[in-house]
Amino acid sequence: MAILVVGSVAFDSIETPHGKVDHCLGGAATHFALAASYFTPVRVIAVVGKDFTAEHEAVFTKRGIDTRGLERADGLSFHWKGSYAGSMDSAKTLGTDLNVFEKFEPKIPNEYKDSEYLFLANIDPVLQARVRSEMPNVRRVCGDTMNYWISDHAENLAKVLRELDVLLINDGEARMLTGEHNLVLAAKKVQAMGPKTLVIKHGEYGATAFFGGGSFDNGVKALHPFRAPALPLAEVVDPTGAGDSFAGGFYGYLASQPKLTPEVFRRAMFYGGVMGSFTVERFGTERLQSVTREEIEERFKLFMEISHLDYAGA
Amino acid sequence: MAILVVGSVAFDSIETPHGKVDHCLGGAATHFALAASYFTPVRVIAVVGKDFTAEHEAVFTKRGIDTRGLERADGLSFHWKGSYAGSMDSAKTLGTDLNVFEKFEPKIPNEYKDSEYLFLANIDPVLQARVRSEMPNVRRVCGDTMNYWISDHAENLAKVLRELDVLLINDGEARMLTGEHNLVLAAKKVQAMGPKTLVIKHGEYGATAFFGGGSFDNGVKALHPFRAPALPLAEVVDPTGAGDSFAGGFYGYLASQPKLTPEVFRRAMFYGGVMGSFTVERFGTERLQSVTREEIEERFKLFMEISHLDYAGA
Q1: What CATH number is attached to the domain comprising A148?
Q2: Taking the model in full, what pTM does it have?
Q3: How far is A8 from chain B (nearest CA, A)?
């Protein structure tokens, strides 16, 4: 089933202990779409500027991603500048030039209207809500957000949360959103806000899914939480986009499956980790552009091997 | 096979958001011994004071733990006073009265000499090394340490590390010991210091085992790392002793098995998490005293359920 993703397509200038890149293709929707494209058809809605060339667009189309929703506006594309030091746990933002993104008004091409899965990447919750309302027939809605919207746009965000089947955020965002440090209690509070299923990403420690009821799908009821590992990596070249790649692998795999069962959901968590582990191996989207489905399956097996008691390869 | 553990048997006065206790039985060797006692015979070497009563000793003997190595000295037992607030990630030490522990000279009873497994809990590395040298015929040696010994007694600690098959420490200790933030690189450095197998505990995120070669046992060679989950808990009453309980479950299970295979090692990591998850449910050793083997097996299954893709209960 096709996923429609709305979010940012941007350029990133990044410095990490392993080097620096200037204006490489980035943005949440980009990482998400590339990661998801290995599993299911993806359609993207975003706005870019004149600096977004045919070569940049080819990064999407080579992966079969539908770019008819990629709007060209006068001006420059969204540009984020950041650096990672030491632990590389979190980015230090050195600059955010919204440029054409500042007046982004998502327009949904007619050809996208039959999308069954919707992913609301991290953008203004007002826009997330609008896109959601214009896609009344989607089967499932998954979304992301960040500290800025949680702290300064809580009311708008609350409206989006009520519409979500799955919310995908990290530890810090879950704690900020709920005022609760304990993640189990935080999950309960999030579930009361709307999304019955919450996936909390723990960075290098993996991710946990909390299930709150039957609303996501009859196949995934109030189970125990599920923990997926992350791959211990000797070298993280650039963590930018790891979370969006997790979301792409997770949601892409879900959308690719005819039926949502607990086992499918669990596998989706693993594919999320797999795609995140590729992204951080290189700067920007380099690795996501070149990875093969065979490498993905091989790494999936590696995730099994590092987490399963009785994995045959052990 | 029997485990000999040397370490602290102490009294803890603890305050957490869930209440406070005064002078409850604690200490690394206590938590370790109780957790391990559900799997294998355990013998303890420690020093206690006059405040350690027959009732306290019965906590050990009720669990079949051999206390002939429990030395009574004049004075009071080691007393630790600490509190946890907010995230409860780390304790704030409010006071440490070493008391009789200050002049602790471990003496190994003859009846303990045939122990096949040795656990060197977190004490002065000089004492760890001495006990190790007096037990030349043990089959396996596992040890713990803490920031104080890492920073101020590095040379003595280095001698102990060379004698260890497995080192069990947490994220912060691994980073401090190696000066390396990345845990994969930190593991490689630790392995060059002696222990070919390193288990790093990540608190609420579980634990990772790194295997560096064949020295631990021919059955566990240079495998990929293995990640064991921790149980997401809505309520952590008192985290004190969780790490020592992990060590007890881990090492106790290993010692109980006739042959060390990769699968046995993996299961040991799960049992470590299981025992840690019980400990934090109540203050001090309360839960470790009352848990049953049936509850342990039930929770082991729960650990499978929250981490395995194809667990039958899913």
Answers
A1: 3.40.1190.20
A2: 0.94
A3: 30
